[in-house]
Amino acid sequence: MVTRTFAGIGLVAGVALGAACGPAPMDGEPAGHEVAAAEAPSSTSSDIAEVVGQLRDMAWAGQVDEARELIEAQRPHHDTASPDWLLAASWLGRGASFAEEWDVAEQYAQEARDGSEALLSVRDLDTDAQLPLALGAGIEVLGQAKNARGDNAGAVQFLGEARERYRGTSIETRIQKNALLLGLAGQPFPELDVEEHLGPALPSADSLKGKVVVAFFWAHWCPDCKRQLPALEQLHDTYGDQVAIIGPTQLYGYVSRGEDATPEQELAYLRGTYQERFPLPDWMSVPISQQNFLDFGVSTTPTLVVIDREGIVRLYNPGDLPYEELGPHVERLLGD
């Protein structure tokens, strides 16, 4: 394994979230449609899947009071220790966080986290479809609540400890993303790991001095990543060698149409059939490593990181970003 470092690059928690490819459906807003107003809560028992769906819709619609009335009306009718119920509670926690109603957000996020952790004494986290979603959301909202109350250091410490506890599970990158959004301003940029690469070799730290750097974390299966690439091409056409664009990716264990593949087969696909259909620009180095995605909390693709001439990251953006927003960031940094 070859590891190279961008020395002296730190991370700032600026973010503009956009629609992007991410773990569906719980890691982001359903794209492409309006959220309908939820039905009025009922005191009679409803199917738990229906309750979860209603609470999800209420969360995105900002209907915190209605969601709270619904979940409390349904509480006597359901097993409140079940993963499905905990997922429902986590959606209310998220909805309250969107509305910045932090007392409510903490109450239900705590219920989701504590209940999920209690279940881990009798089952593994990733053997259940709902449990990691409930636990990940609970941890996420509790970290956000600490930060919203002015305890940024405590929020970052809390998320860091959670990442260590759940290292190697499906929620590790989600936790790390939230830690980066809140707390790595001015900190050293993690080393970029290079197990394999496409295109030119990763630029050295010396060759990047004085340039603005855009790191574009992407996945070969992600349609939003393909839509992001023209904005990067426009950056390159406009600013040339003043801007270095790097495109880290990782292997996912499959190729086109979801066909299972060994690492060797997936690499061959990326270097062959994929390149023929979706050519990668010859000015973008593509380091391949799962570790980069863990260190940068890439649970959403694309994720964009913009680094200034001094090696300080000025934008950490889980999600896509149109040229009309990305270009001014880069232009401002080039003028500094």
* Class inferred from helices and paired strands: alpha+beta
- What count of domains describes the coordinates? 2
Order of helices and strands: EEHHHHHHHEEEHEHEHHEHEEH
Question: How many beta-strand elements?
Answer: 10
Described by the principal axes of the CA atoms, the overall outline is globular
Assembly state: single chain
State the helicity in percent bands: 40-55%
Strand order of the largest sheet: 7-6-9-10
Sequence-ordered SSE layout with sheet pairings:
Blueprint: E1 2-4, E2 10-11, H1 48-61, H2 64-74, H3 83-98, H4 102-119, H5 131-148, H6 152-165, H7 172-183, E3 187-188, E4 192-194, E5 196-198, H8 205-208, E6 212-217, H9 223-239, E7 243-246, H10 263-271, H11 273-277, E8 286-288, H12 290-295, E9 303-307, E10 313-318, H13 323-335
Parallel strand pairs: 6-7
Antiparallel strand pairs: 1-4, 2-3, 5-8, 6-9, 9-10
Helix pairs in contact: 1-2, 1-3, 2-3, 3-4, 3-5, 4-5, 5-6, 5-7, 6-7, 9-13
Characterization of the model:
- The structure is a single chain.
- The protein is an alpha+beta fold and 336 residues long.
- It contains 13 helices and ten strands.
- The strands form four sheets. The protein has a four-stranded mixed β-sheet, sandwiched between helices. It has a two-stranded antiparallel ribbon with strand order 1-4.
- Mean pLDDT is 87; it is low at 1-19 and 24-40.
How is this structure best summarized?
This protein has 336 residues and is α+β, with helices and mostly antiparallel strands.
What tags apply to this protein structure?
Serine Threonine Protein Phosphatase 5, Tetratricopeptide repeat, alpha+beta, four-stranded mixed sheet, Glutaredoxin, 13 helices, two-stranded antiparallel ribbon, 2 domains, single chain, 336 residues
